[in-house]
Write the structure tokens for this entry.
Amino acid sequence: MKYHQMLIKTAALTLLFILFITACKNPSQTVKSTDEPITGEEVAVLTFAPDVPPPITRKHATKMIVNLEVIEKEMEMMDGVKYNFWTFGGQVPGKFIRVREGDLVEFHLKNDPSSKLPHNIDLHAVTGPGGGAVSTFTAPGHETQFSFTTLNPGLYIYHCATAPVGMHIANGMYGLILVEPKEGLPKVDKEFYVCQGDFYTKGGYGESGLQQFDMEKALNENPDYVVFNGKVGALTEENSLKAKVGETVRLFVGNGGPGLVSSFHVIGEIFDNVYPEGGSAINHHVQTTLIPPGGSAITEFKVEVPGNFILVDHAIFRAFNKGALGILKVDGPDNKTIYSGQQDDRIYQPEGGAVQTMPTADMATAKPLTKEEKLANGKALYTSICMACHQADGRGIEKAFPPLEKSDYFAANPDKIIQTITEGLSGPVTVNGKHFDGVMPKQTMSDNQIASVATYVLNNFGNKGGEFDASDVARLRK
Ligand SMILES: [Cu+2]
């Protein structure tokens, strides 16, 4: 499609949309801010995430000049993975814009001469066709301008709305604009800018090199990356958000999408206040708040105890497998009443034994088992009990659980397997030259069961073979 055809189509759609909106709109009870006189003029300070411009203390409306430049730019999606991002200001998300309710915003959209495509901007804070999109269609090397009055306070997404819209957003073209209420927001100690977005690449998660946009994955809303602030790790390690015990924290959270709703959560914190959807209502004591694509939320909380608090999209595979994970690092003194830390870790042995009888044949009776039966039963027992610590391959875990593989601990005297199981084992031991000092709880099992699992261990993991009977176990029991 040619651009002029696209424009006509966009204009026609926009018109329909406006008619629809006009038809649906109730007369609002909210007083709109057109009555305040505009005095003076300011150039808005814009910031990259996670920073936020300073609060507005001004008591009057003013003319706010906003300059935003579109830059198409290759950057990292994750260490070793490159992507050609399209940005508002040179990073994803775009620069944070902070204005006041009632301000007259004079908006200048510039498109860097090196860009390959025209772009525009739809600010959800705008009352007017396309949120400004129709007035800001900007060719590479051009600058467009329009003005709007901020009628409604709130936290709003802005995004590119040039066709194919989904692709422009999927390439990173979104950010937040805060319209502070006249009276300002309550004072807090720290404010941060966090914006989620999903990315669709030809290669899977972590596949290195320059990755191309994958339209099919985008259509299926099946992203390879779901990230905060444009990159896996944008908010972890040295990039973590930082606060001190006792401080109040406000997160301005946006979701650029284009595809996925965010179930925004901070592990180990409860939001004291949430402004759902970035509006004026305040909800209290919230664990997880939903943020739709093209939407936002403001969350506020006091940090009472030190530690790492993890920002996630609680659709949790996205956090641990697609990148939607950030860290708020809180320093300061402990408060053991609010959070004690681990107070104890002791062996738990319920009456009747931790280990229930296995549903295998003839385990309860003392009927002798063949070696094959012992190996089969032993395998089932090993898998359900021993494997948790000694691992499926019998190699254990360094510094925690000793290996049963070619273990020299019981090679000379296999009875020690039986004793370890019936009595448990604790204190320093050396197995195959490695030192361990843990606790193996004694296992409550029948003689046949112990004979079986010990036989299984002896005949697996490179051990030298052998066989035990229930009578051996009975003899060795203390
Ligand atoms: Cu664009």
Remarks:
- Residues 18-29, 353-362 have pLDDT under 50 and may be disordered.
- Helices lie at 3-24, 165-170, 215-219, 317-321, 371-390, 415-423, 447-458, 470-476.
